[in-house]
Design a protein that fits this description.
Belongs to the aldehyde dehydrogenase family. This protein is of the alpha/beta class and about 550 residues long. The protein is built from 16 helices and 21 strands.
Length: about 550
Amino acid sequence: MMIVSPGLFKHPSRCFRSYSIVGVGLLGTFTYCHKYKINRVSFSSFIPSYYHCRATLSTMMEEVKPEFDSDKAAVLVNELRKTFNSGKTKSYEWRISQLESISKMIDEKEKEIVEALRKDLSKPELEAFLSEILMARSSCKLALKELKQWMMPQKVETSLATYPSSAEIVAEPLGVVLVISTWNFPFSLSLDPVIGAIAAGNAVVLKPSEIASATSSLLSRLVGEYMDKSAIIVVEGAVAETSALLEQKWDKIFFTGGARVGRIVMAAAAKNLTPVTLELGGKCPAVVDSNVNLQVTSRRIVAGKWVCNNGQACISVDYIITTKELAPKLIATLVSVVEEIFGKDLMESKERSRIINSFHFKRLVNLLEEDKVSNKIVFGGQREESQLQIAPTILLDVPEDSMIMQEEIFGPLLPIITVERLEDSFAMINRKPKPLAAYLFSDDEQIKRKFVQNIYAGGMAINDTILQVTVPTLPFGGVGESGMGSYHGKFSFDAFSHKKAVLYRSFAGDSPTRYPPYTPGKKKQIKALLSVCIQDEPFWYLQRTENGRI
């Protein structure tokens, strides 16, 4: 997932910028610097009210400390750890109450959520409902329905070596966890992992993306209003706040974003041996066979590219591979479907989200204007920076060494690469880092099997795009540079749980053979016993005395 924040991870406690925000709190004047935009830092619960401020813009050059630094973050984590250690978050009743509060929050504040998404990304109302509200609501309802089952210890078989005994796997919460969210689906991708963390019984800090500032502010206010403030906190802010949080010791960090920042998060976590889940991204290919229904295929590709946040999705179709023979027909059908959905005047359509900000707009334009790419546009290419809009754009046979084929596009540009034989696409895909998703459109069962067996990816969909993430019984996560770990459904619960192995034994059946001194006779008995255990022979092979000894 292409997530870029300008000046990312400079020194967390200092900044040197020509623009700064100056405000007055109850303890006096402070200055907070940020290069591109004003950010309001807000906290819930026990963080004192003097951390909230009203800010005005001034120009100056000075060395300053941000309002939320490592010391404040340490206080926050310590208070959350006290809550967790009290056992409050571990009970079934607490978990259910918090999940019900999230469900109530989504139901009651749907209009405000849609409005925040409109401000951040100009998301159409239906798209906002389907991709953000419905996804979060479904995750919450599933957790409410299945939580009791998820929490139950899992009984497992034991070996003859431990007879008589029983064993189980107990899911226990990890402790105090940090969720760092992203801007492209700023509501659902914030709440989905939080739902898993709460269901597993953890105390949670959510750091939403400052780039989607309206949704970040809304989440901060709503979580403070609906959730348990002693255990679930939202920290707003930008680079300095994220850096301060990453300096703390967490029991789990869940990060959604790009591989570059993912490495920074993982390095910070390694200092405390903190486990991480990294939901990243990559160049997700779609391979199109010549035997497909072109109309259905094109609709599903358009849905997985331009209807889905205008291509700003980590599972969006990044590029297409098809045969030279099929390419002209596929392009014509794609164009027809695009114009059917968005109209002939693509720039006037209200059915697409806009590019998130000018930084990403210029990044996408640079991909289009590269010398070896600019003459490969076969459809679209219109752009309007003042509206942060780029029309759905199709390119044909761009060079494989061009920037657009080397980095994740994360926008409305769609290269189509042609090959002589469809099987040639496999090697092309596998030359690149493993993607978060891979798609195949084909009616050939042999091609389907080869694709599943030979293409490495976080997940796949055959004859469709993006819908794999809506199936709660499937894990969602990457592999290699597209991420590590997975979530959704019970996998979210598992991501924030430790599976504790527990063996129960009674005082019966204790054999002196187990203990030194090991005489030749004992050694023979031990070898015989272990041989039986390893071979998994029937139970009656063990001869027992009246007192139960082996």
